[in-house]
Write a structure and sequence with these properties.
alpha+beta, Porin, two-stranded antiparallel sheet, 53% strand
Length: 338
């Protein structure tokens, strides 16, 4: 019995001892946690809220970085495509080189239409008709080839060689007796021509202008080029007049004839002025007036006349004039610069 009591007491004391140790351990753990909370330096919630604006202000000063654009992926070209692109680039370069530049030196060709009056000293006095000195109108063309040199500051100079021909187109006129209007009893025929060659030097100034297309709302670039020129040359002229009057071709009527021709060799000195209007492709239009001072170095004349009732006679060549006044020639034409 005593042993049983002692055993129970020991068991109770052991359980009490164990409970005290657990309580001690729990107390010590709580003390350590409180000490850690007391010694901790982490900011409280209020401190964190107070410091947050400072962090926002600091981040506001940082510059924004622009986003890097993504490069578009270009697939590698095939050999055929690369060859085609190379050919297109070469063609583009060739076209740029071919494009006309008015501020460079060029070769050029010209062609134009001209008109002039040439003095011919006819001299005849008959019973039905009389003729004296007259200015004969002639029309024709001129063809030239030359080169121009750009001097700078808009100035150009050119040299060209040209040939020309002008004529009367074989004029012929018929008249009738007032009493016989259906009968052709008088005939007058005029024949004239002049041809030759010149060498010409010009000086010009160029500047660009814009002209609006009257049919489309577009503008074209043109180059205006006023110029002065001087030249010398050689020419040959031939003129003839034939007159025939016969009231009765079968015989027995009134009859009168006159036929005279002039063959001239001339030297020429000329000065002129005009302007060119050149397109962006090198084609140009020109208009000019030229004063020609012809000097007749050799004149040959021949002919005859017949008056009613007289025998035929040769025309008098002793007083044939070799003087000729300055001749104005007006020209309109065009050309191409290359």
């Amino acid at each position: 019995m005593n042993k049983l009591i002692i055993l129970v007491c020991l068991t109770m004391s052991f359980s009490l001892f164990s409970q005290d140790d657990t309580a001690i351990e729990e107390v010590s753990v709580d003390q350590e946690l409180s000490e850690l909370d007391t010694n901790s330096t982490e900011p409280t919630k209020s401190e964190f809220v107070a410091e947050k604006p400072e962090e926002v202000e600091q981040t506001a000063d940082v510059p924004e970085v622009a986003p890097v654009p993504k490069e578009e992926f270009i697939p590698p070209a095939t050999p055929e495509a690369a060859e085609k692109m190379a050919i297109q680039n070469i063609e583009t370069e060739v076209e740029e080189k071919k494009k006309f530049n008015p501020y460079k030196s060029h070769w050029f060709s010209t062609f134009g239409f001209e008109a002039m009056e040439y003095a011919v000293p006819y001299s005849f006095v008959g019973e039905k008709e009389k003729f004296s000195e007259e200015k004969r109108s002639m029309y024709g063309g001129r063809l030239g080839l030359g080169g121009e040199l750009y001097l700078g500051a808009g100035f150009m100079t050119s040299t060209r060689v040209e040939g020309f021909y002008m004529g009367t187109l074989f004029e012929k006129a018929k008249t009738a007796d007032p009493n016989l209007p259906e009968e052709d009893i008088a005939t007058t025929k005029n024949t004239g021509q002049i041809y030759g060659a010149d060498i010409v030097q010009t000086l010009s100034f160029i500047w660009d202008i814009k002209v609006k297309n009257p049919f489309m709302d577009t503008y074209s670039r043109l180059t205006l080029e006023p110029f002065v020129e001087a030249g010398i040359g050689k020419a040959w002229a031939y003129n003839q007049k034939e007159f025939d009057y016969d009231t009765n071709p079968s015989g027995g009527g009134d009859k009168e004839e006159y036929d005279q021709s002039f063959s001239d060799e001339l030297t020429n000195a000329k000065v002129g002025a005009g302007f060119n209007l050149t397109s962006s492709e090198g084609f140009f239009l020109y208009l000019k007036a030229t004063q020609n001072r012809y000097d007749i170095t050799n004149r040959r004349t021949k002919g005859y006349f017949y008056r009613n009732g007289d025998s035929p006679a040769d025309v008098d060549q002793s007083n044939v004039s070799t003087k000729i006044d300055p001749v104005m020639i007006y020209s309109l034409g065009g050309g191409y610069k290359f």
